[in-house]
Amino acid sequence: MTTPDARQFVGQVIESHGGEAYWNSLEALDAEISASGFLFTAKHRRPLSHVRVRAFAREPVFTFFDFPNKGQTSELVGDQEVTIRDSDGRIAARRERPRSAFRGLRRQFVWDDLDFIYFAGYATWNYLTTPFLFLRPGFEFELLSPVTRDSASWSRLRVTFPDDMPTHSRTQLCYFDQDRYLRRLDYTASVVGQWAHGAHFCHGYRTFDEIKAPTSRRVRPLILGTYLLAWPTLVALDIHNIWPIALV
Question: d(Cα 183, Cα 177) in Å, to the nearest integer?
Answer without folding.
Answer: 7
